[in-house]
Design brief:
Blueprint: E1 12-16, H1 20-32, E2 37-41, H2 44-53, E3 59-65, H3 73-81, E4 93-97, H4 102-110, E5 115-118, H5 123-135, H6 143-147, H7 152-156, E6 166-167, E7 181-185, E8 199-200, E9 206-208, H8 216-224, H9 226-229, E10 233-237
Parallel strand pairs: 1-2, 1-3, 3-4, 4-5
Antiparallel strand pairs: 6-8, 7-10, 8-9
Length: about 240
């Protein structure tokens, strides 16, 4: 078991939040986790400036609020992953958010965010998410893969929607029943299962297509964000008789 009082010992950590009260609370929690080299900034622009002028040993972890003026947390995360921020592209990043907006969550996951913490922040949740981000870092993709990720629509949104990720339409048989699908709780979906319904975001955008085979890594990421995105169940295809032993 990880000792939360020493979790961040020896690490330089940056936390960015334009709300001074929230910033002070998170900063206090990080210090209680052993961080003695803490950098706090009150916005995305100052965050990027800090990255550019950071000197060795360098920032090893970033905790970013999403809803910051001018440059928000999602824009900072994309700048990191595309190499424009001046920080290591594989820097572990935790996102703070006051919303369970599915579009925000899935876009940040596409940018390989290390985890989410919904405000108000609890020390136990923050410690757990930080531990995962540090011990199970996301392997980064080529810069071009992140450049193509659209973030403008989410960045313009006020993030007032709390809609969950929902499945799309699945073909039904002549009796109007779902054809060869079964509903399973996310925590018991087996590796290799085939998705029986599209997963769509709150604006109807396609997140994962029906027919996709669910890898261990993808299922782990879904479970990491389940609470934020309100994902509780998936519809998966029932195995054909010929597939059964």
């Amino acid at each position: 078991m990880i000792d939360s009082s020493t979790l961040l010992a020896g690490l330089r950590v940056l936390v960015a939040d334009d709300e001074s009260f929230s910033l002070s609370i998170v900063a206090r929690m990080l210090r209680e986790m052993g961080c003695s080299d803490l950098v706090t900034v009150d916005g995305g622009a100052r965050c990027l400036s800090q990255f550019r002028f950071d000197s060795p040993p360098g920032i090893k972890l970033a905790v970013l609020d999403f809803n910051m003026p001018e440059i928000n947390g999602l824009q900072v995360l994309k700048a990191i992953r595309t190499g424009r921020a001046g920080a290591p592209r594989d820097l572990p990043v935790l996102m703070l958010t006051g919303t369970a907006d599915g579009g925000l969550v899935t876009t940040a996951v596409a940018l390989d965010v290390g985890g989410f913490v919904v405000k108000p922040v609890s020390k136990a949740t923050l410690s757990t998410r930080l531990g995962k981000a540090l011990t199970d870092p996301r392997p980064v993709k080529p810069e071009g893969a992140y450049e193509s990720i659209e973030i403008d629509a989410i960045s313009r949104a006020l993030l007032t929607s709390h809609l969950p990720l929902t499945g799309g339409k699945f073909p039904r048989n002549e009796r109007g029943e779902r054809a060869r699908s079964m509903k399973l709780r996310l925590d018991v979906v087996p590796v290799g299962a085939v998705l029986a319904e599209d997963i769509r975001g709150p604006e109807g955008e396609l997140l994962l297509s029906r027919g996709a085979r669910l890898s261990e890594r993808f299922l782990r990421r879904l479970r990491d964000i389940a609470g934020v995105a309100q994902i509780e169940y998936l519809f998966i295809e029932q195995p054909k008789k010929s597939d059964c032993p």
